[in-house]
Amino acid sequence: MPSIPDAAVIDPQALSNLRALNEGDNDEFLREITVIYLEDTPLRIKELDESMAAGDASKFSRAAHSIKGSSANLGAILVRGAAEKLETQSRQSGVGGLVPLVESLKAEFARADTELRKLL
Predict the structure, then answer these.
(1) DSSP 8-state symbol, 95
(2) Nearest by Cα to 95 from 42, 59, 45, 66
(3) What is the pLDDT of residue 1?
(4) What is the pLDDT of residues 61-104, one digit of tens each?
(5) Which residues pair with 10 in a beta bridge?
(6) Do 115 and 10 contact (CB within 8 A), yes or no?
(7) Global confidence as pTM
(8) Can you say how many angstroms the Cα of residue 63 is from the centroid of all Cα atoms in its chain?
(9) For residues 105 and 48, is the Cβ–Cβ distance under 8 A?
(10) What is the CATH class of 7-117?
(11) What distance in Å separates the CA atoms of residue 101 and residue 88, rounded to the nearest whole number?
(12) Which residues of 83-97 are buried (b: 16+ CB within 10 A; e: fewer)?
């Protein structure tokens, strides 16, 4: 799988959009949203693992949906894409066989985490 440059991990347009919501606040709003995302996403990832182990496709889909939305808001495009695949597949065929995709999401979140921490 080709490596995507770090600059592509976070969509700069999404960050610009968030900055525009509170212009002149010296990125305080952006940092606040980033902290919430970096604290909340690992909890949602834990929900993915737990609901997959329990065979709870509904809870799994909700956690994937939550990750998809928050990642889209912050421009974590690769995390959003991985979460979208997980949400779609869990809704269509349950949670069986999703371990590789969950691992991929975790790897993409680690990359996004590294890039987003540069904003803090």
Answers:
(1) S
(2) 59
(3) 37
(4) 999 999 999 999 999 999 999 999 999 999 999 999 999 999 99
(5) 76
(6) yes
(7) 0.92
(8) 10
(9) yes
(10) mainly alpha
(11) 12
(12) bbbbbebbeeebbee
Q: What is the DSSP letter of 25?
A: S
**Average per-residue pLDDT in the chain?**
93
- Residue 108 Ramachandran class (φ > 0 left, ψ -120 to 50 alpha, else beta): alpha
Beta bridge partners, 76, equal 10
For 54, the enclosing helix (H) or strand (E) is helix 28-54
- Report CA-CA distances (Å) from 74 to 11, 26, 49, 65, 99: 8, 17, 23, 15, 25
In this structure, what token pair is assigned to residue 34? 């980033």
Rounded alpha-carbon distances, angstroms, from residue 45 to 21, 39, 79, 108, 114: 28, 11, 11, 12, 17
Token reading at 32 = 């606040």
Distance in angstroms (rounded) separating the CA atoms of residues 81 and 28: 27
